[in-house]
């Protein structure tokens, strides 16, 4: 059975197991959830352990092996990141204003904020520094090993890019030797990744079972409209916006690309981690979609930290939802501030635990909304995190397709063939 079908089956079985646990006694339920939580954590740790070195090695191998068109390639990549994220935020803004998910809902006794509890680390992280200051501090850490331990991919990406650019300045013989070393190391890491992926269905089943059991179905009802609005906006961005870019810019059929990327999308949805999904994304783009290695070596690791369409969209919808729910009428100028901060914080808060919640706390503070409102989002954060992570990965794959079209069409071989 193909990997994506195994993952889909594991998702279904995980939900079924979570439902079944409600019919057993509390002691057995606790034991099963302990096992599934342990297995799921082990699987995520294994993926993240290989993802960190894979990011660095893939960038060095990919960028170091590119020819002199790197400047053009990088500019196309960054232009796509900014454009696609802006489209995502504007889509969220449109849906939030059309559906107004926070209006027409009767508050409970004591108001919406009576029982809201915000984790202390979220409040501290949001109030310590501005998003721009946080972004700069993430770029240049004092210790690269500490950055790797903290999951600060942004700093590792910057270092890997600088290392790869320095590699390109070496004399030809030394450059070829370095390229062989990094290409070999990249192959070794991909092989280890394939070994880890053989147990992916078991890990996905455990993760989904644990999340579904802890989330509780009844708790989703008060925020069902928020979930519907976010999911609708994510679907519109993934199919309409990015689908149009695939069709008109990359010249790729949406259905074909979705089929090629399905294992990575299911993995992103179940794990809610773009970093953990990185090995699967690279494998799908290389083996199933046939995208050039030099293109994926730049776009995918870079997109893991800098291209977060789904996260930016969610931040925008969530802030407008809270404003509507609490009776705050945000003006057009204030909504544009929300759009700008959603763009900034998807980069500025990279590498911080619960990054989207921290970013929302920053935006709430900037537009004058009470930070306690963040506690209302904690109920639905996990399922929406799964959905927006899948959109993040989908956008990274579209970026690779777009960049590849310009990269391949600009090769000397193609130019000679056309002549």
- Give the name of the CATH architecture: Orthogonal Bundle
CATH class identity:
Mainly Alpha
Low confidence ranges: 412-419
CATH homologous superfamily identity: Sodium:dicarboxylate symporter
Our count of helices gives: 18
Mean pLDDT across all amino acids: 79
Please count the beta strands (DSSP E, at least 2 residues each). 0
Q: Biggest sheet, open or closed, and with what strands and sense?
A: none
| Approximate helicity band | over 70%
Number of domains: 1
- What would you call the structural class? mainly alpha
Strand content: under 5%
What value does the Rg take, in angstroms?
Answer: 22 Å
- The CA-CA distance between the termini, in Å, is 45 Å
Indicate the overall shape: globular
Q: Which fold name is given in CATH as the topology? A: Proton glutamate symport protein
Tell me what you see in this structure.
With 419 residues, the chain is mainly alpha-helical. The protein is 78% helix and 0% strand. The protein has helices at residues 3-21, 26-64, 70-99, 120-128, 131-139, 144-150, 153-167, 172-197, 200-215, 224-250, 254-271, 274-288, 293-306, 309-325, 332-348, 355-367, 381-409, 412-418. The protein is globular and about 70 Å long. The termini are far apart. 47% of the residues are buried. The model is unreliable at 412-419 (pLDDT under 50).
